[in-house]
Fold:
Amino acid sequence: MTRRPRRVRLAISAALAWSALLGGTSGAVAAVAGDGLRYGATTVLVPGVDYRTFTYRGAHGTTRGHLLTVDLRSPGVAVDLLHPGVVAGRGKVSGLANAAGAVGGINADFFNMSESQHPGVPATGAPVGPAIAAGRTLKSAVPLGQRFGPRLPPGTSTEDVLGVGTDGVARLDRLRLAGSVGFEEGTVALDGLNQYALPVGGVGAYTSDWGSTSRLRATCGDDIRRGAPCSDDTYEVTVSQGEVVDVADRPGEGEIPPDAVVLVGREAGAEALRTLEPGDTVDVRQRLVASAYGDGYRFAVGGCPILRDGSPLAGLENGVAATRTAAGYGAGGRVMYLLALDGRAESRAGLTVLELASLMSGIGAQAAVNLDGGGSSTLVTRSPGAAAVKVRNHPAGGTERLVANGIGVFATGGPQRRGRTLAPARLGIEEFPHVQGPAPVEAVVDVQPWG
Structure:
């Protein structure tokens, strides 16, 4: 067989990329795009949002995947966080997408799915990294040693995110929590916001966005070992409208009122909180500090960076092939790519993390993150005229898994959420400059999975 000349392959790749940016044509003839990557037909979900299948030849065989291409320059097209209304909660990607009115989406961050290392401690379902939805900050990142997921490449952290700024441009960034708890005896640093794990000696704040799940997991493990024992030196303080209303020796559970914040401390953090009594005045301040973009994010989700400036990061894992989910951007942050592979039972292959980075580069991404894979990998789309989304990939477990969050694609500028709206908390907290828009909703609608 004669090898196709390189300049012809490049021309075909360029034509496909240009077609994706313009919307493509449903039923287009499958074409080859670079070595090992072959696209199927393109379906235009709405102008600026395309869906297509592909196959990619890796070291472990040929795997099948599904791709959403989102042109953020198209009028009304946007991406935002899909989530179940609370940080400590889970839902199916299809249900989250339907509840928000999305035309497509994928699962996103790794999360606290089980607690086999701490018997008797409830798993929270909360994600690892920072999360911002519709300009509203939901949480910050857990300590590095407490994360779930594959080994991080050198120079990356749990604070890394894929986000879209107030300028409508996608970028990789790092969001660090900066905050304090002030009271009569002094001020201590705030080390966590709605996190399933706090650093040793730290103090974390929990708001109505956390949900009703137990906060006990926050005091388990340490900064290096996720499975380290739970601390027996803890303290919890409930603050309502800036005044202490309750204290406890052990983290509790139950819904947190919109006008309240619960402070959880361990070791040195617990010692500091023990100086507080009912009636004391407390001033809680917090904000996320971005490393690259200072004007705020409308959307951000935690992920493991695998691609920068079109090149895979050094130190990426290249031995284990698995079902993967990834998201990235090209065209200077104006085009987003959302990708999920079929489960290995269907594709008989899978990709290593390094292969995933190479694939994202071949698709056209300049930067990308690895998201939760395996049984979590899910990609959904809503066909033109359809009332609900459909799962397009074949999840590894044969059906959708409940996940912490996802990335939704919208054709009306943002989520059109249905269900009960959670009122913004009035905590005396210094809110982010970019906090605006509706609060998340608590609504999950299950639909028939793929078939």
